[in-house]
Amino acid sequence: MRMVRKHTNEEWIILYIQRWLTASFKMGNGELVPRNSGTPQGGVISSVLANLFLHYVFDDFMTKEFKTIPWARYADDGITHCVSLKQAKYLQGRLQERFEEYGLQLNLDKTKIVYCKDDGRKGSYKNISFDFLGYTFKPRGAKSKYGKYFTSFLPAMADKAKKSIRIQVRSWKLQLKVDKDLWDISDMFNKTIQGWINYYTHFYKTEMYAVLRYINNALVKWVRRKYKKRKHRRRAEYWLGSIAKRDRNLFAHWKIGILPTAE
Questions:
Q1: What's the angle, vertex CA 127, arms to CA 203 and CA 58, rounded to 5?
Q2: How many whole angstroms separate alpha carbon 175 and alpha carbon 219?
């Protein structure tokens, strides 16, 4: 008789990870490229491994060793909220040691200590802003419920996020879709626009308005290419604006008042 040993769940996980790490990478042209180390950026296994490592190296460490310090992490991006510069420097040193202990490194070019300046914190420091999850946190003007203006440390849509959306809108190539009507265009892209609005207008929503007007500009270009009588920009804007006033539900940004000009 021959005995066959079954793998434990942990062993199966290790085997699957090893297969992921050694699998060839398929290029856009179909070419298979062998890999000896690392994981492809954007690959499924990359985020899985990052979360597995960082859950233990960072999350578990913060929960057990620094119970009084609030923190948040998403994938490989994280923030901690310290009460003083001394505490922040001490924590950064401990995190560097912790990461190196497990073969990881903090990206010191992107890791910085930020002073959350507002009306209650008026000190002078070099870094007073940071980006996290598509938002830029920095001192901004605010208005209290009593009508008083003051400075608060608030989030708003980051410039990188604005640039990313503009790039995606350009990739739609609306001006080439002259075989579609406006309702087809809405069916194709409105859910994406609504998703952006849902995410980026939770805080300081006016910061997103320029991006939404950029979408209107792309729609105007589509009108000018599709209709011979509306090749001039003003005519195209007027026609699109008149439809927006009649049917504001056609596009998500029209519903919140970001309409093409119709004067």
A1: 75
A2: 8
